[in-house]
Design goal:
The complex is a heterodimer of chains A (633) and B (220).
Chain A: H1 19-23, H2 28-57, H3 67-102, H4 110-129, H5 157-185, H6 198-230, H7 243-277, H8 284-297, H9 313-341, H10 350-371, H11 375-381, H12 385-415, H13 421-447, H14 464-493, H15 532-537, H16 541-546, H17 561-564, H18 574-587, E1 594-595, E2 602-603, H19 605-623
Helix pairs in contact in A: 2-3, 2-4, 2-14, 3-5, 3-7, 3-12, 4-5, 4-18, 5-6, 5-18, 6-7, 6-8, 7-8, 7-10, 7-12, 8-9, 9-10, 10-12, 10-13, 12-13, 13-14, 18-19
Chain B: H1 2-9, H2 23-48, H3 59-62, H4 65-90, H5 94-124, H6 133-162, H7 170-199, H8 210-219
Classes of the chains: A mainly alpha (633), B mainly alpha (220).
Amino acid sequence: MTTIAFPKLISRPTSYTGLWSWIATVDHKRIGTLYGITAFLYFLIAGVEALIIRGQLREAESDLISPEIFNQLFTMHGTTMIFLVVMPMSAAFFNWMIPLMIGARDVAFPRLNAFSYWAFLFGSIFLNLSFFLGGAPNAGWFGYANLTGSVYSPGDGLTFWALGLLILGVASLAASFNFVVTILNMRAPGMSLMRMPVFVWMSLVTSILMALAMPVIAVALIQLSLDRVLDTNFFNPAAGGDPVLWQHLFWLFGHPEVYILILPAMGIVSEVLPVYSRKPLFGYAAVVFAGAVIGFMGWFVWSHHMFTVGLGPAANAAFTISTMLIAVPTGVKIFNWMGTIWGGKLRLDTAMLFSLGFIAMFIIGGLSGITHASPPTDAQQQDTYYIVAHFHYVLFGGSILGLFAGGYYWWPKMTGKRLGETLGKWHFWVMLVGFNVTFGPMHWLGLNGMPRRISTYAEGMGWETSNAIATFGAMLIAVSVLIFIINIIRTIASKQEAEDDPWDGRTLEWSIPSPPPAYNFARIPQVKSLDDFWYQKHPELLHDERGEEPESDEPVVEETHGGGSIHLPGMSYYPIVVALGMVIGIVGFMEIRVDIPGTDLVFPWLSAVGIAIGMYGVMGWSLEPVSEEGGGH
Amino acid sequence: MAQVAVKQEQHVHVADTNTGISNRKLLLWVFLASDCLFFGSFIATYLVYRNQSTTGPYPNEILDIPITSVSTFVLLMSSLAMVLAVNYAQRNSVGLARFWILAVAALGTVFLLFQIYEFTTFVNEGLTIRSNLFGTTFFILTGFHGLHVFIGVLWLLGMAFAHFKGALTSRSVEDLEMAGLYWHFVDIVWIIIFTVIYLIGFSDGEGLSTIEHAAAVVGG
């Protein structure tokens, strides 16, 4: 193909086991597993941060930790839970399930997929290194300017934050491009868009949101980094800069981000409910359309985060209307889920319990959200614990419970073993109760005027009881997570083997072995209807449930693939090399530079090293054949 | 004529995907959509901060519209060259395609040289990324655009020397089509940047736009 001689310093690993095979992997299932494990470890870290916060707030005038540490902990708790837990855990399910659900052998760009993971991993490690290198970021997860400028936040904490999130943004962008192309281009024959599982639809909407929202936060973070490192004036009021610009850019990203966090969980629940109700999803088209409308309208509500900034009555009125409107498609989804359960033959397995918990908790969080769609009410609630209660009900009660539902639902497919049901139910009930005990009282705390982000409070404010209850609830949540970990360990140690289709599933991933072979589908499936696998198992239901008649079996076209072997992309080290180069390049921007003699310019030598590594990786990547001759079957 | 038509057909390749667009090209389209928001945010920042600088040098003291008009013309012509390159590649004329690819890269380089000249002049006249809000927003916006042009030039040079010799594969033709999409996009972004920074009115720091200024001159 090419005549350019490229020094082939890195040859591919030859074994499909061992450490190097994981580092060089391009298999979407392995990358999904890596995302899942990493996200779960960060879930534990951010959980410990939350427990320390709750420990500090348990009683009035506590001095368990200093206010400085408190600020770092709540900032890193929020940042970690959003960027290092919910997003990568969703990415884990995207990676695992999108190809399996659309009948594909891998994602569209396997090496880009590996790059996304490694960039995410390095960026997340970099962000957390700040704890040991002069203090973690401490300006809250939305890092309002100009508190984040070098005048008010000296030290490197916020530079870690800005550059770390920038790296994570690049990782998310690469992942989102990959998923959009995979879903649009790689569906099995017959799987039209309106035959895609709802989870795949929600993945598509989420990926489009990521592709369009991430550049906005990237710009804001670039501006902040430049302000901090090179003394530019983007958010410098003395030079005429406007800190409100940060708020607009941040929330123009931040509100679509909220849907990036919740839509994957909505997709999971839309898969779980029909399976455990033994009914098709009620109003499939409405659920899909509602998801797409949420994705679209999510762009027109950002200023409801800024009602107290003083944008004026016209802007506040417009964003009130759009905010109340976006509750409508969300309501459509909730009614469709209830319609799905209605009259179904319910099996209350753990995945189903988590899905039902998701609906109930998300309704509470959605209703409290509606209350601050109104600026006068919001002015009372702004920056109080009421807001903290609201977004934990949608992000914990919503996203996290939904992701746990997906974990229990797909665990047998991913590992070949079912998670224990008894411990699973203990996990669910302790977590649900603990969650409500923790965040329920925060509604009252907020309406009683307790501001968020205070490291302690005086006695006699009437906040002691609720805070003590909330701290007790947080410990219950910790217990529930311990139960989950014990469940995982016991499941891994057990000798059981899960069936290919343990829940009588409806979608294509259940038609292949558990765990799936590297090539997923020995034969690419031919899809004839929505929930095709279900109607293959139960052809008699096709007329009643979908009003369709079974098609006469078309002659199946055997895919030969050159004598029966299936070509898979070969493993590659270049994704991790490019990720490393990019991360070093961005990190090197951080005051790691030398003066160029005779000029007032500086040379960011570490960035140059990173760019060189990245260029080497990109060249190797583009010149490397997709698979070795005769290998990679 | 019939023969020409057949020749043209041979590189019209419909990809074996659901959309009929190859994965790579669809990836590029999604990237361009994303990049719209990237430039959109920087352009919005520039517009919000227009006329907000508290100290000089102000745009009307320093911008050299005739010179930048020339570099803009050069960049527009590079898009024409790109159209010709893609056209010849699709007709399987390797030599001409290669010539026009190199022409695009050369014109892009000329544009970058203009930009280096402009930046150096501005710095010598006291405008840096630190000096005021105009300096900050101007250098970062046009700088990121220049970075895009630079990456495009590297891409084109790599392509011209690696693939555009001997027989063309349909993959090489598609490579060039993708580079073309990217190049035209970067060109369109420049048209917007040029309009926003250089053409629409800017004040001299005392709230007088060029249009008002021109009106004052004409009227007075």
